[in-house]
Amino acid sequence: MSYLLGVVLFALAILISVSLHEAGHMLTAKAFGMKVTRYFVGFGPTLWSFKRGETEYGIKGIPLGGFCKIVGMTPQDDDVEPGDEKRAMWRYPVWKRTIVMSAGSITHFALALIALWIIAITAGLPNPKFPSTEDGFKAEPAVIALAPCVVVENAARACQADDPASPAEKAQLKDGDRITAVNGRPVSTWGDMLDVVRATPPGAATVTFERDGRPQEARVDLAAVQRPPLDDPKGATSSVSALGVALRPSTPPRVEYGPIAAFGATADFTGTMAVQTAHAMQRIPQKVPALWSAITGSERDMDTPISVVGATRLGGEAVENNAWLVFFMLFVSLNFFIGVFNLLPLLPLDGGHIAIAWFERARSWLYARIGRRDPGRVDYLKLMPFTYAVILIGGAFTLLTVTADVINPITLFSR
């Protein structure tokens, strides 16, 4: 039930986000005097609606987004009634049209920023000083946090009733102890400890450690587990020893901020997220073969794109595992990505309309400088083949990601 609740909550969050996206278009259009005839949540048959002024508001039967109708978005639109010619959107200055068309993405960015600010002062944002690579973790001091058990097979999952207890816990080691030697072999970093422990045969071993600055020793019965080589996480597994501990980093993974400091931290994190989003979008064409492989039976690459279906499933998993921070960070990431994607200069995206508006403005300025007649507005009908191509490619990619998310979804938690 908790998984289903998470799915419903995340789907509702997406629906609200998209509805607010369309509300952003509507409110800015109305503020500039453009005519908005319809604003609906959902698609398909109308379940309920009412009319206030010149705009009809309502709810459709299929809760997959929403839309608003602004009269005269392009010169080729034939929805302009007599007397409304001056209120057609395409007749307004380019800066006003830019604000209206970008208002949807701005709404997504605002939702992401507000959520991030709240997270910053409640749960904290990722610490920029926290190690970001496996090599960074290996360079950390070998300060331990006791694991509740040892998972024998090579699997990232929660402990189960029949899993062996942590050898370190049985030997009465404690969180915060710093390992300095195993069977007399010195250890200075977490990477050293992993190398030494795995090279030690399973069974009895002497572990030297520091607790509160004082050296101590303990007899530990190392467990036998299946693990791949440290330098090849996807390599073949073999039997090695395990102490039953995790790294306790010297720097906290998250940092909480006060209400004022949270503004700067949110801005910094947003900049990092923007770079990561740009890199992720650049990698999308490279990940198409991996998506196809996931559909045809291969292991799903965690770095492959996910659809709204996949994000919703992850939201359900987060609630099922009481990981609300993951739930809200998914909400932030999705809104930020949609905001950026929607500004791409491609029709029928909002960014395509903005690009055309500024192209017209630049062309008019250039023609005026060289003494040529203004060529006027772009003919959208001539761009329809390109628009259909974008829709076709986007639709095929969406179908591919949705299929992968149904057949072989990415999971963050063991179920």
Automatic annotation (TrEMBL):
Domain (PDZ) ranges: 115-213
Topology of the protein relative to the lipid bilayer: Multi-pass membrane protein
Keywords in alphabetical order: Hydrolase, Membrane, Metalloprotease, Protease, Transmembrane, Transmembrane helix, Zinc
Keyword Zinc set for record: yes
Gene3D superfamilies: 2.30.42.10
Source domain of life: Bacteria
InterPro entries registered for this protein in UniProt: PDZ, PDZ_6, PDZ_sf, Pept_M50_Zn, Peptidase_M50
TM stretches of this protein: 99-120, 386-407
Alphabetical list of SMART domains matching this protein: PDZ
Cofactors (names): Zn(2+)
Cellular localization per UniProt: Membrane
Membership in a protein family: Belongs to the peptidase M50B family.
Protein name (Swiss-Prot/TrEMBL): PDZ domain-containing protein
Organism: Micromonospora chalcea
